[in-house]
Amino acid sequence: MTAICIRGGADLLKYSATIFLFLSLLVPRVSSAQSAPTFDGKSWWDYVKVLADDNMEGRETGSPGLARASAYVVDQLKKDGLQPAGNKGYYQPVKFISRQIDESGSSLALLRDGKPQKVTLGEEASFNTRVDLAPETDAQLVFVGYGLHVPEKNYNDYAGVNVKGKVAVIFSGSPSDMSSALASHYQSSSERAKELRAVGAIGFITIPNPAAMDIPWSRMKLARTRPSMELADPMFNDWKGVGLAVTWNPEFAEELFDGSGHTFAEIAELGKERKPLPTFPLTLSIQAKTRLITKKVESANIVAKLPGSDTQFAGQYVVISAHLDHLGIGEPINGDKIYNGAMDNASGSALVLDIADKLHASGVKTKRSLLFLFVTAEEKGLLGSRYFASKPTVPKKDIIADLNTDMFLPIFPLKILTVYGLDESTLGEDAREAAKKNGVEVQADPEPLRNIFIRSDQYSFIKQGVPSLAMKVGYAKGSPEEATAMKWLHERYHAPSDDVNQPVDLEAAGKFEDIAADIAIEVADAPAPPSWNSDSFFQRFAGGK
Ligand SMILES: [Zn+2]
Questions:
Q1: How far is it, in rounded angstroms, from Cα 71 to Cα 56?
Q2: How far away, in angstroms, is 481 Cα from ligand 1 center?
Q3: Across-strand partners of 423?
Q4: CA of 528 to the centre of ligand 1 (A)
Q5: What is the pLDDT of the chain when averaged over all its residues?
Q6: How far does residue 251's CA lie from ligand 1's centre (Å)?
């Protein structure tokens, strides 16, 4: 080849044309439908085994374990010939402030007729350190039902109650006539904070809906003294002005309603069926004293690029994302203190790595560029993805889609695919097509109470106007698979037993990867970028890019 440079003009042209013709024959030009690599689940599980190994110490944000896992991911990306696309090689550093409650210097009491009644931390209630808790709070309590204000539905739980200077008591959930997307959006922390500030509440107490608790209180209380995090950049500070956040054990919630003319049992019964809830003042006030331990923490997102092959489209990006962080080392359960996070979310990170590797091996080139993104601090409130989606390392306007994978749970055969965001954008059609090709049915979110659409990183992109999808291995209501999934949630979710010694269905994982890769290729090769459906609630963010 070096010979080209010594040849004359015309000759050179002819020669290069021949080379060009020859090269273009080598480039795979089969249509995306045929060229997608196939997966057997085994290579995926091999990645999971590395990422969820005890040596990674549960990959907590800012920990040496997550740094080790990140270094491993970067090595794999290099091996797959992907280009660095962070702002420090493959990395996009992110700064955080971590907050941890020091319970020895904190207390909580309910006051009835001026008489304090001590609240046992961990048993009855715990502080939520996602909020920068004020050192002291003393305020009246008001029950505000679901605590939702949804202008689209002309729905406002705050309309008939005075919350100014008080602490709002909120029952988690939403009324049944509200779509899951709408209900999820207004329950997100930034919307919650905005509303509380607007009505002048100085704090809030959340009572989890017993009908929709993924994690039993016995395990929630173990996590209460772990550090919470917030992005250090003040532009991301949602909770400014809110000084108290407490989560109340539903088993002890009756005490909050004493003397109010209502009982918690009645509220829980209505909430279970997603019926309208009353709002009313409570007869108690709350007194809180808090001591926080704050620290600066640094971590990083990882970004790699597989450049697109089409000169016109290569400047646009399809993001394939997963969070790499998990909970780290915590309170031991059955003698195990490493929260390995095999399904949550070594499984999603492994899928992204596996797709990158197989695309590389099969030589598939999509027209648009693919961006492989591993985010940090998902477990701290989608913080890494929020940072990336607002300050991406490629031009924001050129990100056309996010396909996110978080805890897709291949623990039984894949017959139904649950697609979050199925009816929100044209990506839903891509998902339907890819699923059909692989002989799998699709369904929209069957469990709106769990708010899954806003509980992972796709939501950070949605809020920036980017059409996004997330998927899981699904199940039909009342099926044995549903029972298996529920058992998994109660026993392993956010517990040390979510490790590599659990049963897994490799065939289901492989088929899931087939579908995920098909969608990515389809979207990256499509004549037009995806768009929000005209009736989608999330279309409102489309201007945010
Ligand atoms: Zn998680």
A1: 11
A2: 21
A3: none
A4: 34
A5: 91
A6: 24
Say which DSSP state 227 is in.
P
CA of 344 to the centre of ligand 1 (A): 5
Residue 309 above 50 pLDDT?
yes
pLDDT tens-digit map of 481-504? 999 999 999 999 999 999 999 999
Query: Which structure tokens are listed for 51?
Result: 């990422």
CA 474 – ligand 1 centroid, Å: 18
- Report CA(117)–ligand 1 centroid distance (Å): 34
141 near 285, Cβ under 8 Å? yes
Note the pLDDT tens digit of each residue in 369-426: 999 999 999 999 999 999 999 999 999 999 999 999 999 999 999 999 999 989 889 9
Determine the distance separating the centroid of ligand 1 and the alpha carbon of 381, expressed in angstroms.
Answer: 10
Report the alpha-carbon distance of residue 329 to residue 227 in Å, rounded: 11
What does the alpha-carbon distance between residue 204 and residue 242 come to, in Å, rounded to a whole number? Answer: 8
Confidence of residue 114 (pLDDT cuts 50, 70, 90): confident
Q: In the numeric block, which tokens belong to residue 257?
A: 């309603």
Residue type, 104: S
Cα 351 to middle of ligand 1, angstroms: 16
| Distance (Å) from CA 341 to ligand 1 centroid | 8
> What is the whole-number distance in angstroms between the Cα of residue 471 and the centre of ligand 1?
15
Distance, CA 389 to ligand 1 centroid (Å)?
19
Give the integer Cα–Cα distance in Å for 248 and 127.
Answer: 9
Predicted confidence at residue 28, as pLDDT, reads 42
Q: How far is the CA of 494 from the centre of ligand 1 (A)?
A: 6
C-alpha of residue 326 to centroid of ligand 1, in Å: 6
pTM: predicted TM-score of the whole model, two decimal places: 0.84
Cα 543–chain centre separation: 22
Q: Do you find a cis peptide bond into 345, omega within 30 degrees of 0? A: yes
Distance 325 CA to ligand 1 centre (A): 9
- 324 backbone dihedrals φ, ψ, rounded to 5°: -100, -20
pLDDT of residue 222 exceeding 70, the answer is: yes
User: Over the stretch 260-304, which tens digit does the pLDDT of each residue have?
Assistant: 999 999 999 999 999 999 999 999 999 999 999 999 999 999 999
